[in-house]
């Protein structure tokens, strides 16, 4: 869909004032002002992002209590199971806590539910299996906060349950009416009964930053455990090395889970990217090698988002999450190499499945949008692989700029449908599903992404209620895709020095997007060329007033014909980047959008 360009405006006097006060280049001052950072202290804190800026784990609600309970369990020789999740955040979180427990001499094991057979989160059968196998303590990572009934099962089984999570608690009238014992009820919010709950965003919590991912919460608990074991704030060399590795794993989870890269998340990722290079595990080294990252001078957010995280996620999507976990925790370089190669193969399978589901779902989406231009999309298909519907939902939400739910129907019609949804800025998907939960067997997630299970017979009623909810909460203007542009800049301004200054705002990602610039009177210097295994991407060269720059349009392969046919100059919106290739650094453009002059 065509995007409406919104170009930021600036007060030159404020730019100059911040430039002088903070001692930073004008372009950086302008971009910081666009991010709401207006004073010298805020600018320095943002740009420096010191590791010492991470809050002590004792400030995180529940962390000290959980660490005390786990430390006592280790001392008493009780068996501890880390109950994880199958996405990159959950796998990284599981690795952090499991490595910590083993470092401290715990009798530790793990359990990750199978995405295809069990679905997300705690489940009753898994808890019964763990109890029968001799587990005493179950510590969840990246899940559990919405598992009210399952927590009661753990209690009945005699398990000590400790929950670490960052998702939203359960809500709804059904929970208010429930007779299950709960740790706390706040309005319509119910918390499960547990020995300790570690969570940055619980109701009435005073923790200043609720945006941590599951791996970051696990890192905070591991940090608290190391302090407990050391009986001091400062820990020994072995624990310090472990914690630096854990920061790297937390960075993977933070980028993969698309949480805002501000506050503590910015610090974790800034330093975690360095830790991945300077404190690597054999598994991280093997992943870098199979992804072709080992020859790069440094790892950046894009490397994690498009090379490391998709490989870890692919294992979980195809029911092989334990192999991804083993990759992260193994001490054997040879085993790590084999696992990394196998998981890369799974990622290629995932890409094939994704293309197939996307083609089918996109046909349905096009037809639905022709019928109603301001509703959400609820699409379903028999045999759509449940491991890739979330990725496809995300692509369609971006393409059609509206909330999208994809539901995979069982081939034989015997099992409930499994759904995954993605949203757009300004629309709370979790709240929308809660409003429709009478049609669902279960659901969970957060504002931008969620999952659900549903009986096939209920899909029609759910679609009607969900789409009606979307229409009430989204206007036609909300459904118009927008591209936020930080500034206008001619190609001649894109010097290596300027782009290097822009890079000082990294790491880039959700909440701190790589700056987008635009310029006009641009022409193609040569015909565009499709690149990539399937031709999804486009390689271009633009020319403006005698200056020529290479550009890449990721996912823009379908622009090829229209660009060739465009008569006259065009306007382009792009992200300036520094490309590293065979030891050379060159400025290039990542094309975000384009349009004919005058449109």
Describe the protein in words.
- It is a single chain.
- This protein is an alpha/beta fold and 599 residues long.
- It folds into 3 domains: 160 residues, OB fold (Dihydrolipoamide Acetyltransferase, E2P) (Beta Barrel), CATH 2.40.50; 227 residues, inorganic pyrophosphatase (n-terminal core), CATH 3.90.1640; 102 residues, Roll (Diaminopimelate Epimerase, Chain A, domain 1), CATH 3.10.310.
- Helix 5 packs parallel to helix 9, helix 6 packs parallel to helix 7 and helix 10 packs across helix 13.
- Helix 16 links the parallel strand 10 and strand 11.
- 42% of the residues lie in helices and 21% in strands.
- The strands form 5 sheets. Strands 3-2-4-5-9 form a 5-stranded parallel sheet, with helices on both faces. Strands 10-11-12-14-13 form a 5-stranded mixed sheet. Strands 17-19-20-22-21 form a 5-stranded mixed β-barrel.
Poorly predicted regions: 173-183
In total, the number of domains comes to 3
CATH C-level name of the largest domain: Alpha Beta
Question: What is the count of β-strands?
Answer: 22
Major β-sheet profile: 5 strands, parallel
Overall 3D shape: globular
Query: How many helical stretches?
Result: 20
Rg value: 25 Å
The largest sheet has its strands arranged as 3-2-4-5-9
The structure class reads alpha/beta
Distance between the termini: 14 Å
Strand residues, percent: 15-25%
- Helical content band: 40-55%
CATH architectural name of the largest domain: Alpha-Beta Complex
CATH topology of the largest domain: inorganic pyrophosphatase (n-terminal core)
Q: Could you tell me the mean pLDDT?
A: 92
